[in-house]
Automatic annotation (TrEMBL), chain A:
Listed GO CC annotations: plasma membrane
Full protein name: Branched-chain amino acid transport system ATP-binding protein
Gene3D superfamilies hit by this protein: P-loop containing nucleotide triphosphate hydrolases
Originating species: Nocardioides terrae
Stored PANTHER family: CONSERVED COMPONENT OF ABC TRANSPORTER FOR NATURAL AMINO ACIDS-RELATED (PTHR45772)
SMART domains on file: AAA
GO molecular function, one term: ATP hydrolysis activity
From TrEMBL, chain B:
Transmembrane segments: 12-31, 37-56, 68-85, 91-117, 124-146, 166-188, 219-239, 245-263, 270-291, 297-318
InterPro entries tied to this protein: ABC_transp_permease, LivM-like
Subcellular location: Cell membrane
Source lineage: Bacteria, Bacillati, Actinomycetota, Actinomycetes, Propionibacteriales
KW Transcription regulation (keyword) present: no
GO CC list: plasma membrane
Residues annotated as signal peptide: none
Protein name: Branched-chain amino acid transport system permease protein
Keyword Transmembrane: yes
Species for this entry: Nocardioides terrae
Length: 242, 337
C-alpha cells in the first residue's frame, strides 16, 4: 500500500489552473523527486499535500485515510512535514526553540523538557548543535535550510516534503544536504523532494515525477526520466545528460 | 530584541506566581488602610489600567493581532454588571462572573467567525474589532434592559452590598482582578500556550505546519482576553456609579491600552503593566497643569519619544540592559507586526 496517494489534484487561483488533475504516489521509505520548469506547480502541489493550500478538486490520501479536507496542523500530527523554499524561521525563538516548538506540537504531544531533549538530538543530527542558543538571524543560508529540515524532522514525520532545500548551497554544503536527505530514507521515512538541481535529484530519488504547467508529464526512475527525449528537450536542457 | 531563549526553568515560574499573589495581597491590605481617599481612587484607576493592558496583551500582543475591541469587552462587563445589579437580587460576585462570561462570550463568537477566514489578519482584524465597538454601542443604546439610552444608576443598586461600601472595597476587587490578569499573562510567557501564540505572531502558516492548532489557540485566547476585560468592568461599574453608553464605549480605552503596551513593550509579560503605570502616573502629574488638551499632547509626545528611543518599549530596554552588547535586530514586537 502506498503511503501517499494524490488523485486528480486540482488547484485554481482565480482563472489560473496551477494544478490540473495531478496524480502522484509515494511508497513507504521512498524518495520521490519532483521536477519541472518554473511555474509547473511543484510548490503548489507540495502545499496542497501539506494542507497549507486547500485543493479545488481531487483527493489526497495518507496511510489509506482521506486527508483532503484536513487542516495543516492535523496533517502534521498525522505524519506529514514540510519545509519552506525561502526559510521561514520563528523569530521569537532561538534555534533550539524553533526545533523544540515542532517537537512539542508534533505527532505526539510532549512536555517542554521532553521537546527540548528531542530538539537537541535533532540539532546534533543536522550539525547545528553549536547554534542551539543562537538568534536565527545569525544563521547562514545553509544553516537556515538545515534548520528547515530539522524542524520538519522534529515532528517525527512519516513523509517529509522538501522544497529546494539545496538551492543556493555550495557543493560541499549540498553534499552534506544530500547525505542528510538519504539518511531520512534510512530512518524509514518517505521524502518528496523538489529541486532545480536535477543531478542532485537523480542521485537521490528512487522515482521521479515531471510536472509541466500543472499536469503530469512523465514519471519513472531517474534513468528513465533523464533518458526521455520529451523531458530532456523541453525541461531539463542538455546539461541534464552530463 | 534578542529572541527569548526557549528554556525556562520551572522554579522561577512558581516564585513569580507567589510574587504576584504577595504583591496583590499587600496592596489590597496596605493601600486602603494607609491611603487617603485620593490615593485609593488613584490606585483603583491604576489597577484597572494595569488589568486592561495585561489582558489586551494576552492575545493581541502575544499573537500579533492588534485589537481595537478591548473597550467593548470592558464596556460589556460594565453593562452586564449594571444589568445584573439592576434587575436581579444576585450579589456583586455573580454580577462580576456574568460580566466576564458575557465579554468572553462576545469575544468567543467574534473569534469563531473572524479567525475562520485567513483574510482577517493585521489591519483587517483591527478594523473588524473597531466595527464591533459601533455594533455593540448601538445594541446597548437600544436595548431597554441594558440601557435604552437613559443610562443606569448602578449606585442605587449597590447600597446594601459590601462592594458598595466605598472606594476601598472597589479597590480590593480591582487589585484581585489585576493579579488574575497578571497570572494569566504569566501563563502566556514561556509555556506551551505562550509558544503557540508567539509562533502565530511570527509565522502563522509555519506554526500550522509545525502542528500548532492556530485557530483553536486564537479563538480561545481572544475569549480569555475578552473575559478578563469584562471582569474588570465589574468594579468599574460600581466605581462609576452611573454608566452611560457614550462614556463607557469611548474609543480612548482601546487606544490607551495599545499605547500602554507599546510603551511597556510586549517583550516581557509584565511590559504592559509598566506601560500602564507610566501613562497613569504621567496623566495624574499632568493634571496639575490644568489643561487636559495640553496633557494629551504631552502624553502623545512622550509616546513618540519612547518609541523612537526604545523600540522594544520599557521592558525591551530592560532586557538590553541585562544583556549588554546584544542590540536590537527585530522590529517592535507584537503591536506593529
Amino acid at each position: 500500500m502506498s503511503l501517499l496517494r494524490c488523485t486528480a489534484v486540482t488547484k485554481r487561483f482565480g482563472g489560473l489552473k496551477a494544478l490540473d488533475g495531478v496524480d502522484l504516489e509515494v511508497g513507504a521509505g521512498e524518495i520521490v523527486g519532483l521536477v519541472g520548469p518554473n511555474g509547473s506547480g511543484k510548490t503548489t502541489l507540495l502545499s496542497t499535500i501539506a494542507g497549507s493550500l486547500p485543493v479545488s478538486g481531487g483527493r489526497i490520501e495518507f496511510q489509506g485515510r482521506d486527508v483532503t479536507r484536513l487542516s495543516s496542523h492535523r496533517r502534521a500530527h498525522a505524519g506529514i512535514a514540510r519545509t519552506f523554499q525561502i526559510p521561514r524561521p520563528l523569530g521569537s525563538f532561538d534555534v533550539l526553540g524553533n526545533v523544540a516548538t515542532a517537537a512539542m506540537f508534533g505527532r505526539d504531544r510532549v512536555s517542554r523538557s521532553e521537546a527540548i531533549e528531542r530538539a537537541h538530538g535533532v540539532l546534533k543530527r543536522i550539525g547545528l548543535d553549536g547554534h542551539a542558543g543562537s538568534d536565527v538571524t545569525t544563521l547562514t543560508l545553509h544553516e537556515h535550510k538545515f534548520l528547515e529540515i530539522g524542524r520538519a524532522l522534529a515532528l517525527d514525520p512519516r513523509l517529509i516534503l522538501l522544497d529546494e532545500v539545496l538551492g543556493g548551497l555550495n557543493p560541499a554544503e549540498a553534499a552534506a544536504g544530500m547525505e542528510l536527505i538519504a539518511s531520512l530514507r534510512d530512518d524509514g521515512r518517505s521524502v518528496i523532494y523538489i529541486e532545480h538541481n536535477v543531478r542532485a535529484v537523480t542521485a537521490l530519488a528512487d522515482r521521479m515525477y515531471v510536472l509541466d504547467r500543472g499536469r503530469n508529464l512523465f514519471d519513472g526512475t531517474p534513468t528513465e526520466v533523464v533518458g526521455d527525449d520529451r523531458v530532456v528537450a523541453a525541461y531539463l536542457g542538455g546539461g541534464a545528460r552530463a | 530584541m534578542r529572541p527569548r531563549a526557549w528554556i525556562e526553568p520551572d522554579a522561577p515560574l512558581l516564585r513569580r506566581v507567589a510574587g504576584i499573589v504577595v504583591v496583590a495581597a499587600l496592596a489590597a491590605v496596605l493601600v486602603p488602610v494607609l491611603g487617603s481617599n485620593y490615593i485609593v481612587t488613584f490606585s483603583f484607576q491604576f489597577v484597572v489600567w494595569v488589568a486592561l493592558a495585561l489582558s489586551w496583551n494576552v492575545f493581541s500582543g502575544n499573537a500579533g493581532y492588534p485589537s481595537f475591541g478591548h473597550g467593548v469587552f470592558f464596556g460589556v462587563g460594565i453593562y452586564a454588571t449594571a444589568a445584573v445589579l439592576e434587575h436581579t437580587d444576585a450579589g456583586f460576585l455573580v454580577a462580576m462572573l456574568v460580566a466576564g462570561l458575557a465579554a468572553g462570550g462576545v469575544a468567543l463568537v467574534v473569534g469563531l467567525g473572524v479567525f475562520a477566514s485567513p483574510r482577517f489578519k493585521g489591519d483587517l482584524f483591527g478594523l473588524v474589532t473597531l466595527a464591533l465597538a459601533f455594533v455593540v454601542t448601538t445594541v446597548v443604546s437600544n436595548v431597554a434592559f441594558l440601557d435604552g439610552g437613559t443610562g443606569v444608576f448602578v449606585r442605587e443598586h449597590t447600597r446594601g452590598l459590601w462592594v458598595g461600601g466605598g472606594i476601598r472595597h472597589v479597590f480590593v476587587v480591582g487589585v484581585a482582578l489585576a493579579a488574575l490578569a497578571a497570572l494569566v499573562a504569566l501563563a502566556t510567557s514561556r509555556t506551551r500556550w505562550g509558544t503557540a501564540l508567539r509562533s502565530i505572531r511570527d509565522e502563522e502558516a509555519v506554526a500550522e505546519s509545525l502542528g500548532v492548532p492556530t485557530y483553536r489557540y486564537k479563538v480561545l485566547t481572544f475569549a480569555v482576553s475578552g473575559a478578563l476585560g469584562g471582569l474588570i468592568g465589574a468594579p468599574q461599574a460600581v466605581y462609576l456609579g452611573y454608566v452611560e453608553v457614550g462614556a463607557v464605549f469611548a474609543l480612548n480605552v482601546p487606544l490607551f491600552v495599545i499605547m500602554m503596551t507599546i510603551l511597556g513593550g510586549s517583550a516581557r509579560w509584565w511590559g504592559p503593566a509598566i506601560g500602564a503605570a507610566a501613562v497613569v502616573v504621567l496623566r495624574e502629574v499632568l493634571l496639575g497643569i490644568g489643561s487636559p488638551e495640553l496633557s494629551q499632547i504631552v502624553i502623545g509626545v512622550f509616546l513618540v519619544v519612547v518609541i523612537a528611543v526604545l523600540p522594544q518599549g520599557i521592558s525591551g530596554a530592560f532586557d538590553r540592559l541585562r544583556q549588554p552588547g546584544r542590540s536590537g535586530v527585530r522590529g517592535a514586537s507584537g503591536v506593529s507586526r
